[in-house]
Design a protein that fits this description.
Elements (H helix, E strand, L loop, with lengths): L5 E6 L5 E6 L3 E6 L1 H4 L10 H6 L12 E5 L9 H11 L8 E4 L1 H9 L7 E7 L20 E10 L3 E9 L9 H12 L7 H7 L14 E3 L2 E3 L2 H7 L12 H30 L3 E5 L6 H10 L4 E3 L9 H13 L19 H9 L5 E4 L4 H10 L4 E4 L13 E5 L6 H9 L9 E5 L3 H4 L12 E3 L2 H4 L11 E3 L1 E3 L5 H14 L3 E6 L11 H10 L4 E4 L2 E5 L23
Parallel strand pairs: 1-4, 4-5, 6-11, 11-12, 14-21, 16-19
Antiparallel strand pairs: 1-2, 2-3, 6-7, 7-8, 9-10, 13-22, 14-15, 15-20, 16-20, 17-18, 21-22
Helix pairs in contact: 4-10, 5-8, 8-9, 12-16
Length: 567
């Protein structure tokens, strides 16, 4: 093994993904969906040659170790074929090991080791992970029982599994917080998977008491689902969004979100009491629930909470790579999740080629001050895409594959939701805010670089920022700092100078039903297929010759005032 080990981690299950740890600090990650263009695309044979190798050329070089992660689906039954594909596709010598790590442990390694903590409690909650017989941690369980929640004590020297909730997998008798939210989502959107964020967005429109549903039954580290809920989930489409009365759907979402948040708080309290630690690292699909995360950060007994920007299954490839580096090769990892731009290194020639091949309905220019040109378009009501640098590894667009718009202009949210994203009208849009202005405008006491938790928009500014203020007065903000996202910071600074407003709308750069864009060609295709007005791909600004309609309402009052300075 060389002084700079190369470890590949592969997630073979939902949200298929790959990660490459290069040396002790370098990290690359790519989700399969970004290349296949199918959201939440599961891992399958053929992923390496068809999707990953063409985008990550370093996979063709020397490799010191491969770590695979599977869950409880059937893919682990193809283990021999996957091993053959690895040997046929990668430069693996006969002495290069291929090891397995179980699902929740890969989640944990993606959260704790890249966190800022020397020690922390670890919490992993999702719908279902590995079977007991496949667990990497020593457990007094075997067979087909499934992990649905795992609890850890973590330090840089040792990971100790304190407890797990296990479930027999019978959906007639569901158990666990992740199972609950999966069933709640399916009751409102039958497709289930991928619609969990819609439930979270719908919940503030409902009354959590209207249906008389109970809290979940939390006993220590285990969450059980009362009969009243399982009976409701069995009632077909009685609450289905778009078919049932809107208020009825919203009331169910509100009741379910409240029950989820209270149960999560109880689990965190149990873990804090068990460990006595001040810090928490939290991962698993449930850690994408921004409303619950905000409550956890504000109200849990933990002083600090770290949630990785890829807490879902797509992030487990990073956990696999870190497990291999740390536990198998004995190396100390210096990778910390200071940003989420882990995609392939950008190739300026790729952008030049894409711009050179623009179809006739688009025109490209190279403004002397691109940030200023974008700010002027945004101030005129245009909705502008931004494609730059390495892509985000997680599901949140954080400025490298984003759609931007004016948060002061009534009607912009509806325009983005209907004319660009073609999605439900109630879906909120997130704000980018200059970090030095965040505490004045939002009820926050820490940076929020990953857009992971909801916080109150301070009441004096809600009317001035109508397009990022959700019906409950909250927003899922991203704070922008010059060292993390320099061009985004420059753009927001130009915008602030031009308008007096330090906030922009940000949402993911994709068309209806698509995942985040990865390549310049995909971003250009999104510009053409939607009513986006323009696309910035530094140093280029691409516009349509025939511009779509622009939201006509004028911006409301500015936010330059400073009622009750909260800095």
């Amino acid at each position: 093994m060389s002084d700079s080990p190369v470890v590949i981690g592969i997630n073979r299950t939902q949200d298929g993904s790959i990660a490459v740890a290069v040396g002790r600090s370098g990290m690359y990650s790519l989700q399969k969906e970004r290349m296949s263009r199918r959201k939440h695309h599961w891992g399958r044979l053929g992923d390496l040659p068809d999707h990953y190798l063409p985008r990550l050329p370093m996979l063709a070089g020397r490799v010191d170790l491969v770590v695979e992660g599977y869950s409880s689906d059937d893919e682990i039954g193809n283990l021999d074929a996957y091993r053959k594909e690895l040997r046929d596709t990668l430069d693996l010598g006969d002495d290069v090991p291929i090891v397995l790590v179980s699902h929740h442990l890969s989640h944990l390694y993606s959260a704790f080791h890249p966190s800022p903590f020397a020690e922390a409690a670890g919490l992993v909650v999702d719908a279902q992970g590995s079977r007991a017989r496949d667990l990497t941690e020593p457990m007094h369980a075997s067979g087909d029982l499934l992990e649905v929640a795992s609890f850890y004590r973590c330090s840089r020297e040792r990971i100790e599994c304190l407890a797990k909730q296990l479930w027999d997998g019978d959906w007639a008798r569901p158990a666990g917080l992740g199972c609950f939210y999966a069933l709640l989502t399916k009751a409102l959107w039958p497709a289930g998977e991928g619609n969990e964020g819609k439930v979270m967005g719908l919940a503030p429109y409902g009354d959590p008491d209207a249906l008389g549903l109970p809290d979940l039954d939390v006993r220590g580290h285990e969450t059980h689902i009362p009969d009243a809920w399982t009976e409701l989930f069995g009632r077909g489409g009685a609450f289905r969004y778009g078919e049932a009365d809107f208020a009825r759907s919203a009331d169910l979402a509100a009741a379910g979100q409240r029950a989820f948040e209270r149960a999560l708080a109880a689990l965190a309290a149990w873990l804090h009491e068990r460990t006595g630690l001040e810090n928490l690292a939290f991962a698993g699909g449930t850690a994408l629930n921004c409303s619950a995360n905000g409550t956890l950060i504000r109200e849990s007994p933990f002083r600090e909470v770290f949630i990785p920007p890829s807490p879902h299954d797509g992030g487990t490839a990073i956990g696999c790579a870190l497990y291999g580096l740390i536990e198998c090769l004995g190396e100390e990892s210096g990778f910390r999740w200071t940003d989420d731009f882990l995609g392939p290194d950008p190739d300026p020639g790729e952008i030049d080629a894409a711009v050179g091949a623009l179809p006739g309905d688009l025109v490209a220019e190279r403004p002397g001050d691109l940030a200023r040109a974008m700010a002027e378009l945004l101030a005129g009501g245009r909705v502008v895409g931004l494609h730059q640098g390495r892509s985000e590894s997680g599901p949140r667009a954080l400025g490298n594959r984003s759609i931007l718009a004016d948060p002061r202009r009534p009607g912009v949210r509806d325009f983005v939701n209907t004319e660009v994203k073609d999605r439900e009208w109630f879906r909120p849009l997130a704000p980018l805010v200059l970090a030095e202005h965040a505490r004045r405008l939002f009820d926050v006491d820490r940076p929020a670089p990953f857009m992971q938790y909801a916080a109150d928009v301070r009441p004096p500014y809600r009317a001035a920022l109508p397009e990022i203020t959700h019906v409950d007065g909250t927003a899922r903000l991203q704070t922008v700092e010059p060292d993390r996202t320099p061009f985004l910071y420059e753009l927001l600074t130009r915008w602030h100078e031009l308008t007096g407003c330090p906030v922009l709308i940000s949402t993911s750069l994709n068309g209806p039903g698509d995942p985040l864009t990865e390549t310049p060609e995909q971003s250009i295709a999104t510009l053409r297929a939607t009513n986006l007005h323009a696309l910035a791909m530094p140093p280029y600004l691409i516009r349509k010759r025939d511009e779509p309609p622009v939201p006509s309402a004028e911006p409301v009052q500015d936010v330059a005032g400073d009622p009750g300075d909260h800095r």
